[in-house]
Structures are given as C-alpha cells and as structure tokens.
Amino acid sequence: MLHREKSLPSHDAAFRFSGQVGQYGIVLDHALGLDWQRNGLSVTYLLAVFDENLTVYPLTYDMDPDEISDSVAVKMDRMQRMKQYAMQDYWPRRAHGCDFYGVPCGFLDICKRRDKKFIESWFEFEKVSGRFREHRRIYDPVWVLEA
C-alpha cells in the first residue's frame, strides 16, 4: 500500500481491522494452500511516505482465524447491502467517500440528484463531451463474484 499524508498511528487504525485481510486469506488459502482457518495469517503492509527521503514503514499484523473470519463476514455484509441497494434502486451517499486523499469524487456534481433519468442523461452527456471516461479492466479477472 502506498500512502502519504497520514501518521503511522492513523495507518495502524486504518489497516489493523481492514477487510483486505480476509480477502487475502481466502486467495492465499486457495493459491498457496495456507490454512488460515487453523493457523491464522501474517500480513505486512508496506507504507511509503513520499518526502525528501522516501521512507518505507512495514506494518505487520498476525491475524488469528477469528479475526480473519470477522473480516470475511464484514465484507459479506457489505456485499449484501450493495445487493439490497441495487434491488431498491437506491444508493445512499457517503460523506467520507467524497474526498480520497485530496482528490474529489468524479461524481460529486451529480451526487445531489436522485432522478435516475437525469443521471443517465448526465452520464451520456459526459461521455459525448469526453469529460467522463468509463474505466475498463486491463486484465481478465481470475474469478468473479456475482451477487
């Protein structure tokens, strides 16, 4: 993970119970035959601070099986909520998602609207004008989870 503008305690707070650990655990379990459900998992994040000296800090966590299972459960909960939002055609706003390390969300202008037809028209206009680019995968995924 390459991040800047955060202190080490802030990174520790962000990564200690990150949902990434459970996802890594499942992938590593299948790819390398690691038995995280019995042995847990050790995860190291490398944080690069881009200053005059470029300093790299390792943050290592020894996660027990319960912590990994918890992160998997949290991810599943999030996916279930996303599925429910899609079924209801309602997506709640998240104030903390409007800014990511000093870069405003690309959808900030349209976020105040809830009218589906207006939003679709806005996307079409943005595509035609060249200001909006749809991101596409540059690789084929190994597997896809469909809800």
Number of helices: 5
Distance between the termini: 28 Å
**Order of strands, widest sheet:** 1-2
**Helix share, percent:** 40-55%
State the assembly state of the protein chains: single chain
Element pattern in H and E: HHHEEHEEH
Categorize the overall geometry: globular
Class by alpha and beta content: alpha+beta
Poorly predicted regions: none
- Major sheet summary line: 2 strands, antiparallel
DSSP strand count: 4
The proportion of residues in beta strands is: 5-15%
Whole-number radius of gyration?
19 Å
pLDDT averaged over residues: 77
Layout of helices and strands, plus pairs?
Layout: H1 8-15, H2 20-32, H3 36-39, E1 41-49, E2 55-63, H4 65-88, E3 99-100, E4 103-104, H5 116-129
Antiparallel strand pairs: 1-2, 3-4
Helix pairs in contact: 2-4
